[in-house]
Amino acid sequence: MESIRTWFTAHKFTAILLIVVIFLGAGGVVAFQKIFSKPSGPVEEVDLSFDPEGPYAQLFPRRDGNALVLNLKRTGSYDGISYELAYTSNPDETVVEGAKINLEKSEDSGLSGAIDRGVVGTIDTKEKKGEYEQEILFGSCSKNVCKYDKGVENGTLTLHIKKGNKAYRMSTQWHLQQPDVALGSLTSGDGHLVYKVDADRQALSNVGFTIINDLTGLPKLPSGKEVLGKVYSLNTPIAKQLSKGSLVLELAENPPSEAKIYRYNNEWIELDTKIDGSKLSGYADGAGIFAVLTSAK
């Protein structure tokens, strides 16, 4: 021990330097372990399957049909949300300069067939809200000039959601229609929901546009109920109303005899339902969320 003290006294600078090197080395090893032990981020997105209590996206058409409004619910626990809107349109575009509207022929307007279009964007989630709303254009705007895609009817919306180091993908199919052009027959993108409006041509024209999309979640269900098959949302532009109409909803399999169509518009309402094989029919008072519900097992 005495010899160590003598050496330390004679080589004080060297001893201090040696201790510093040891501490730095140990700190570097710890830092290295922390850096390389951290997950590098999600490698693969997981498809978000239907969950009655999970997030879901309702779509609303803008009054002029040149955009849709995304209303995303139950998102308070997510760190980041981005979207991809994919659809087809006609080669021509609608050019809007202020209040003046012109039809502009594109160079490809002589070609037949539709053109694939896409819009990508992000939603600001800093406030961690439980609900977000964002308008998505069918086209683009620069200063006071907007170029809107024409003939947009069918498409998909894919949402990319991040929660910690996990990533999820949520997809919905949508169908945009003009009720008067469709003669009051409104259909989902997969054709499994048909809503026939009881109204004259003028009343249909006043609605402007409707959109139907399938949902990955839905509002809280009535006690003791569960969902059969897909859930659909039928919406009009905000402040517009859709008249009453007959409804047919087709499932992949024949439902049990107690199954009923329900409509959600601030609350769940059971419709007087008839069953014919895998098809259920009823009469509804307007737009809303439609689902087939049965007794929970």
Give a brief rundown of this model.
It is built from 3 helices and 22 strands. The longest helix is centred in the N-terminal third of the chain and has 26 residues.
Give a verbal description of the structure.
The strands form 4 sheets. Strands 1, 4, 7, 11, 12, 15, 16, 18, 19 and 22 form a 10-stranded mixed β-sheet that branches. The protein has 2 domains: 2-37; 46-295, no CATH class. The protein has 3 helices and 22 strands. Helices cover 14% and strands 46% of the residues. It has helices at 2-10, 12-37, 201-207; strands spanning 46-47, 56-61, 67-73, 80-89, 93-97, 100-104, 115-123, 131-137, 139-142, 145-149, 154-163, 166-177, 185-187, 193-197, 210-214, 225-235, 245-250, 260-264, 268-270, 274-276, 279-284, 288-295. The longest helix has 26 residues, at 12-37. It has 297 residues and is mostly beta strands.
The total beta strand count reads: 22
Structural class: mainly beta
Q: What low-confidence regions span 5 or more consecutive residues with pLDDT below 50?
A: 34-39, 99-111
The H/E string reads HHEEEEEEEEEEEEEEHEEEEEEEE
Supply the number of helical segments. Answer: 3
- End-to-end CA span: 79 Å
Strand content: over 45%
Radius of gyration: 29 Å
| Average residue-wise pLDDT | 84
The biggest beta sheet is recorded as: 10 strands, mixed
Principal-axis shape equals globular
The helicity comes to 10-25%
